[in-house]
Amino acid sequence: MTGDEGMPLARRFSTWTTRRWLRVGVTASLIVLTLLGTVGAWILGRSASISDELVDVRSPALSTSYRLESALLNQETGIRGYGLTGTTQFLAPYRQGLADERTYTAQLTELLSGDRAALADLKTVKDAIGTWQERIARPVAASPAGAPSAVASRRATEGKATFDALRKVMNDQQGRLRADRLETREDLAATMNLRNWVFATIAAVIVLLAALIFEALRRGITVPLTQLGSDARTIAGGDFGHPITPTGPADLRRVSAEIDFMRRRLVRELAFTEEARLRLDAQAADLQRSNAELEQFAYVASHDLQEPLRKVSSFTQLLQRRYGGQLDAKADQYIDYAVDGANRMQILINDLLAFSRVGRVHNDLHDVDLNLTMERTLSALSIGIEESGAVITHEPLPTLVADATQMGMLWQNLIGNAVKFRRPGTAPHIHVTAQRDDALWRFTVTDDGIGIAPEFAEKVFVIFQRLHTKDSYAGSGIGLAMCKKIVEFHGGTITTDPHYRDGTRIIFTLAPEPPQVPGPSILPEATRAGAEPTR
Prior knowledge:
Blueprint (H helix, E strand, L loop, with lengths): L5 H9 L3 H68 L5 H21 L4 H26 L8 H5 L1 H81 L13 H74 L5 H29 L7 E5 H11 L1 H7 L2 E4 L4 E5 H17 L8 E9 L2 E8 L31 H11 L4 E3 L7 E7 L25
Parallel strand pairs: 2-4
Antiparallel strand pairs: 1-3, 4-5, 5-7, 6-7
């Protein structure tokens, strides 16, 4: 088609999707392959049929005819010898020839069934055999033994003529059988030659189809996808003004158009993103200033605040020792309040400093044997353990890449909590387990203490959140919050087991190696907190 007649067809093809092109291509290929397979199957069947006819019919029929002739020659030789001598030994080949004749005649009848001309030749041979046997063979064989046969002498000329006629009929039959075999052989050769051409044609057509399919896939899918990928990489490289040109089938063109729409939208969003980035940069600067102020506060708290606090504590304790009992009861009570407040303030500042330094000051990562860390923790808590009569057991603990100081703080707070929050009048039993859970190590610390109510399962990990008054249990309320910060710094999580009702079970995980190593903050060293672990 040319001109206006070609436009509708081209426009119609332009709406075809990749699936439709593939469906049409696969269908056409299957039709062609089916036709070629049918022709190939026919030619193979034809070759097999002719080959079977040659091997199973024509060649066996000719060889059987030769055997039949040999059997007749044996009969003629035996009859002729018996007729001339009267010796019965000549009748043996005659009788064997008769048996072979019946066998070979039956075989020829079976082999030539369906071939009228060949069966007619076989009938002529049978008639000639019957004439020779009736006129010559059977009368001579019936003559008395011991003397030459008179019948053989009288019918010698007739016998020769009759057997010559029989041999002529046999030669005619064998000639036609040879001709049939030759014709079948030539037919087989021609069919095999045709088969070779057909399969060569099939191979050529398959190669042509493969080339057409490859070229169609290259033009319809590979080239458009390569172009789309190149455009996408150009855009991903930062050239957001680079347009995407739709090519290929309709669905690939739609994908290209949608990606180009996304590109244009990204260009529009970039201006807004840039503005948001500038705002975030300003906020980040404010956050850096805030962190600097917090670090400055930590420095002040560890030095400037602690020094006057120590003076207050020292002088209030001096007042308590020197004037205790010399003033009235109210004055003694006020002095006690001042001393207690100063001591608790000291503990609170130390705990807060220790909490803020997790992951910043204590950040010396190396292989840590948690079994040794546990032994050191139990040694540090030995006084409280002896006073409470606590029984502490643990399974073999792993070696992790971690900060040894933080691991000691973690075990000291968890074991110390389990010892401190025991049931009144009962020696606590504490058991620690460790097992591999996919990529993490899963630990449990189980005690038979007073437990944690389910509604407070999250609250206990918040800093300064206490479940009991300081008169009931000492501490600043920072212990489990510090444990949570340590565990999260080492790539794990920590929680309580809400289903455990016989005390408290803390469950936490640790990574074999921390997922990231924050840079250390430059802070002054402070006194290590955690001597009084609290929830």
